[in-house]
Every structure is written in structure tokens, then in C-alpha cells.
Amino acid sequence: MIACFNFMNLSIGKASTRIKEIGVRKVLGAQRKMLIKQFWFESLMHSFFSLIIGLTMAEVFMPAFNRLSQKNLRLEMFSSGGNILFAIGLVFLVGIAAGSYPALFLSKFSSVDLFRGKMKLSRKSAFNRSLIVFQFAISIFLMVSTIFLSNQKTYMLNRDLGYNADQVVVLPLKNLATNFTKNAAFVGVLKNKLLAYDTIQGVSGSTYNLSEGWMGTYLKRASGEPSLVVYNYVDQDFIPVLGMKLLEGRNFSEEHPSDREGSIIINESFARILGVESPLGHRLSEFFATKYDWQIVGVVEDFHSQSLHDPILPAFLGMTGMDYNCVFIRLQETIASIEKEFTALAPQAPFEYTFLDEDVARQYEREKHWVRMVEYASFFAILIACSGLFGLTLQIIFLKTREIGIRRVLGASARHILLLVNREFIWLVLAANIIAWPAAYLAMSVVLRNYAFRITLTPWVFLISGLIALLMAAVTVSFHAFKAALSNPSETLKYE
Length: 496
Description:
Layout: H1 2-15, H2 19-27, H3 32-69, H4 81-105, H5 111-116, H6 126-158, E1 168-172, H7 183-194, E2 200-206, E3 215-219, E4 227-233, H8 238-241, E5 246-249, H9 259-262, E6 263-267, H10 268-274, E7 295-300, E8 315-318, E9 326-331, H11 336-345, E10 354-355, H12 356-362, H13 365-399, H14 401-409, H15 414-448, H16 459-486, H17 489-493
Parallel strand pairs: 4-8, 6-7
Antiparallel strand pairs: 1-9, 1-10, 2-9, 3-4, 5-7, 6-8
């Protein structure tokens, strides 16, 4: 839509410079019907060749767009009669609309009026300016959206997760073919071997990774609503390896054999729903109707076991239960030592690993793609809006040629002329901001509701986007205005 509106503006601006050409054609006997056909034919040819170029560009850039959008799209414009009719209709719609101004409006004046400049070519065409306002409103809307989406992505990637994911390698243990009856036994032997290396700072077994979500259950109370709680079974090194902060109590320890049978460590969110000053020493059966009479021995700071799309749920860590499905290894340098010991213990299993910080970042791939796509859309929207403004400026300068010449004769400086012409468009950009800001605020409010942890919609983003649009408009307008300001007034006024 903004490309079509831009084409109309360019056609209107260009037509204003062809007034003398129309006058000459009329003097030489051209009828109005002939001029209408000429302008519409030129516009339709522009539209047709634009379609061909556009389809070629779409085919060339489709692989890059598919990589960006994570889609597998194909261009099938001519695969059906409906698509072909749509393409033909698009060419005619854009071509006829863009050529209507010179074809229907300029062609009706007599050759004398055209040469004398007596036709009433409005300087303040509401249609022209509404197109510019619409284009800049979309551009500002996209700029605001881009900044907020980028800030949300950065916020999610840099937020404190409640654990340290840097330099932590994750080894998956699902479907691991070894001589060990359980993965927990394999992890114990692997841990002893790896800790002999100076580059290995810690090793821990875990049932779930921190980037895939944990198992959940509802704990029922004697009265009131049941509470959704997530849990994970780990060993005593889980908290130190991941750098979690212990707020109360103690960590699991081999010095306390009971830890393997009935001790748990809860997070802050779990502690809050218990409603006691200190949960240490209490058992789950005191608060919930459960057969697991586990004792709370510690409280850790809240951490994200899921992406930031979801809120932090009450969670607990235990040492008894399911087998391990992954290993967390904190290291300083190379992973060669890990591969060596892993392969020695499980020669039949492929050595596969990921880094925990990369696993966490992969949760936000969708946001990365959306931000990149909106960035490109913003760039092209600004480019198209400025090119439309470029055409409208050409028309305004043409209409103000004599006025500018008179002002120069009376002593106006080039700076004064620049301000005079730019003033014509400042209100257009301001009007675009008035339209774009509420729309962007509502749209971003809806988008950010999908995130339990999100940024706030700060006013400076709207102001910066508006200023960028204003600056781009000023640069675009000033290109023509500067040429007009430096022109020789004797050339523009010699017939007066």
C-alpha cells in the first residue's frame, strides 16, 4: 500500500514539471483524449515493468527471506489463473490510479493557461499530504515496534536467570548405550574422572535441562486451591555448578544420608506459598495432602526453569526419584578432556554436547527472527516514504519557484529558503506521529503481554522514532530546497 501511494505521489510531483510539455502538445493539435491515453499508458508501463522487476527480485531473495523467517515459501504467481488475474489487476489498479492526476487534471487546461501558469494547481492538496502522512505513520509505527522488540529481545538474553549459564556444557544422556544399569551410576563415574582435570570446575547430573521446562504437579491443600509446582531431581553439585544462590539452610551433602531419601530444596516462590516465616525443617505433609513427607533443608533464589515467556513457578530440587537425563559440566577451557572420558565410558554412544547459554538463547529464536524482519520492514518503509516525499517536494518547489525568486531578490538567504520549504512538511510528520504513537503503543502492549517478564513502554522510544522520521524528511526535502535556494532569481523571474 505504501509503495502504491508512493507511486502516486511521485507521479503527481513529476506531472507538475511537465506542464509546458502538455501545452506544446496541445498547440500541436493533441486532443485531451490523446493526452489521457498517453499518461495512462506511461503509468501502466511503469507499473508493468515494476511487476516484472518485483517478481524477479522476489525469486532471487526468496532463499534469504526463508532463512530469515524460518519458512519454506515458494513464488507461484503464475501457477493458477487467479494469481495471474491478481497480477494483471494489480498492474491496472496501480497504473490507472497513479496516472489519473496528470491524465484527468492537467489535460483539461488550455495551452495558454498551461504556458501562463494560470491553472489552479493546489499547493495544499489534502490527497497528496494524506499519502505522506500515511506513509510516515507506518514508518514511525515500524520504528517504534523495532526498538521495543529489540529491547525485549536484549532484556530476555541479558536478564539474570538465577543461575550462571556461561561456560557450562550440557551432555544429553537420553538413550545412552553403556554397561551401566542407570545413568546416575554413569554420571558418578564420569564425574570422578573429569574432576581430576584442572580445567573442570564442577560436574552435576540432572533429570531436566534448564532450557526445556521441568515436570509439574499440583499439590493439594486441605483447603483452598491446589498449587502448581515444578521439580527436578539432581545431585549435590547442581547448585554450585550452576552458581545458584542459597538464601537459607544448606545444600545437599553426602554427610547427610537422609538427603537421598527425603530432603528437598525449594525456591523463593515455593517458600512464599507456604505462608510461614521460615520453611526450614518443615515437611511438605504439613502444608499439602501428599504421601511424600519430604523435609525442606534449604531455600534458593528464584531461577528460570522455563523461558521468560512464562512466570517463575514454585519449584523444588530433590535427590531421589527419576534417573538423570543430562550432565552439567562447568569448565574453563577445552572440552577435549570431556570427550576423552565420555568416549572411554560409552564408546558406542556419539559424543554430543551443547552450551547451556546457547540452549537458553535458542528459546528466543522466534523473537530474533521477528526483530530482524521488522528491522528490514522499517528500513524499506522509511525509504519508500522518503522517496514519496521527494516527489511531493518536487511539486512544491515547482509551485514556489517564483516566490523563491522574489524572496531571493528581496534578500532572503539560502537558510531562510530551506526553513520556508521544510516548514511545509514539519506538520505532516507531526501528524504522522499523532497517528503512529497510539497505534504502536496498543500493538506493543498486546505483543508484550505474551511475556511474563517484559520491558516497560518508555516514552523516549516514541520521541526518538518521531525525531528520526523528522530528520529523514528534512534531509529529503532539503535536497530540492537547497537547489532552489541557490538558483539564480533572474532565471525564474525573467518573464515577469
